[in-house]
Amino acid sequence: MKLADFEQLLEEFWNDDPIWPLVPLLDGFCLAIRESVFERIDLLDEQLDWTSGGDVDFCFRASGAGFGLVVASDTAAYRNAMPRGDAAASDRKARLPDLLVSRYDRDRLDRASQTLQNNPILQRLRDRVAEIAARERKFPHQRIERTTAER
Fold this sequence. Notes:
The chain is an all-alpha fold. The protein has seven helices and no strands. 7% of the residues are buried.
């Protein structure tokens, strides 16, 4: 897929006013964090990396300090990887380190996960992405290739 094709799909996807739903957790692969958050809650916990719950810990600490966590529906980041399916999410949940579970009991972790899965706004966004993906059959799994002119 050419970068211009990806941009056209994004323009079509965001033909409505942007919505920024509040959520209990965000995926750590792409976060925009204000400096004031770090000033208040400190940096990431070095005992937890992004793949073992560091993003969960950071999000819980930020929301606990009064910061809102939102999904910016009018922003895109291309991730050159296959999306995590239910099996991968289950695997991640199963291997959460004891440190994370001891800080935030398993019930809280499960409630946050269920909130994300059952959020009607996020489901509407997921459905729209699936609709475009089914129609295009090349979004979002194919690598974006830049043409010489776009480089």
